[in-house]
Structure formats: C-alpha cells, structure tokens
Amino acid sequence: MTFRILYHTAVVRDDIPKLSSADRKRVKEAIEEKLGGSPEIFGKPLRHSLRGYRALRVGDYRVIFRIENDTVKIFLIVHRSLAYQKIKKRI
C-alpha cells in the first residue's frame, strides 16, 4: 500500500527552509521511502500526551507524523533536541 504524504503548513514554511541542503535531501528521501510505503514499521510510536503520533529518526532530526487512513500527515521536522518541546505547540 502506498501512503499519501501531507505536510503541515508550518513544516513547509518554517522547518524545511532551516535544513541544510544535505539534510533536506536526506529527510526527503527518508520520508518518501519509509513513510510512503510502511510508516507503521519505521515510525516509533510516541507515548503519553503524544499518543497517536509517531517519530521517524533521520540522523539528528526527527520527523513527527500521524497516520490517518491512507495518509501520513507530517507535523514537525526539527533537530532532535527540540522535537518534543516544539510538537506540543504545533498540534
């Protein structure tokens, strides 16, 4: 099954432009290959107040997403040290 990938507007506006070109390429490839095909396998389920969300590790970055039917909604792409602080503000 192929999943459709949707980005939160803040991801496109704020997160992606802050990545270096090498990191942007690596994150894009990981999203297309891993989340486009099997997001439930590659994404680590989050707990507590973030139940229902998942995190994909791409180097030092985290991609926080949610699976809804045949769609993967990406809410945050940020350095791992900031990921869990910023996701609560974004969702």
CATH fold-type name: YaeB-like fold
Distance between the termini: 27 Å
How many extended strands?
5
Would you tell me the overall average pLDDT? Answer: 94
Give the uncertain stretches in residue-range form.
Answer: none
Question: The biggest beta sheet, please?
Answer: 5 strands, mixed
Tell me the name of the CATH homologous superfamily: RelE-like
Structural class: alpha+beta
Shape call: globular
CATH architecture: 2-Layer Sandwich
Task: Count up the domains.
Answer: 1
Q: What amount of the residues lies in strands? A: 25-35%
CATH class value: Alpha Beta
Rg over CA atoms? 12 Å
**Secondary-structure element sequence?**
EHHHEEEEH
Number of helices: 4
Report on this model:
The chain has one domain: RelE-like (YaeB-like fold). The protein has four helices and five strands, in the order E-H-H-H-E-E-E-E-H. The chain has a five-stranded mixed β-sheet. Strand 2 and strand 3 form a beta hairpin.
Topology summary:
Elements: E1 4-7, H1 9-18, H2 21-35, H3 39-42, E2 44-45, E3 54-58, E4 61-68, E5 71-79, H4 83-90
Parallel strand pairs: 1-5
Antiparallel strand pairs: 2-3, 3-4, 4-5
